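S., here's the first fold you wanted:
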Amino acid sequence: MTESTLRTIHSIVQIPIREGPIGSSLPFLFVNEGELSLLALAWARCKKLEEHASSATVADGAAALGRFLDYCYLVYTGDLSRPEVALLALKRFYEARRFGCPQLGWQ
């Protein structure tokens, strides 16, 4: 595998919605083997329908969450159930996004 090959466990499907302006959609975030992230969907729905965020803003947020899940599943092996460990994972994710992560193909 080369460094330019991206590794991922997530995919995002934009689903059109009736509420809002024409062209509005919600990102459905799927992880692992097709499991829908209901928490990500609830967040997207809240941002879009209650806070009136643009579809692009909500899609960017879902993509960021997908990258964080990629990092947690494929690189970070700690138990995220404790707040201090989750905070450390978030810090390391930030560093991986900023400086690169060869395991995921991030430069």
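And the second, which I think is the more interesting of the pair:
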Amino acid sequence: MGSLLWTLAREKITSDTMNKAKEYAEDALKWLIDDKVLTKIDVVVERYNTDGVSMIITYYRENGEKNTMRFSNLWKQISGDNNG
């Protein structure tokens, strides 16, 4: 279990990077569907301000219960110099 999201932390924020983030999150959460803990998981990745990424995960239980979690500012685009 786990995800590859950390591998994107230093990437420039592009539509390709955001698609990878969605894919990595879906892959990391897939076991919850496979083990029948949840019936469905929706992942939405979007820009956060001008230099960050946020993720919204909505998950569904067998009884129809729906919950949403929002993770703001997953990472910020590193700009300019590397002086800290």
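Why I say that: DSSP finds one helix and three strands in the chain. Strands lie at 40-48, 52-60, 66-76.

Talk tomorrow,
H.
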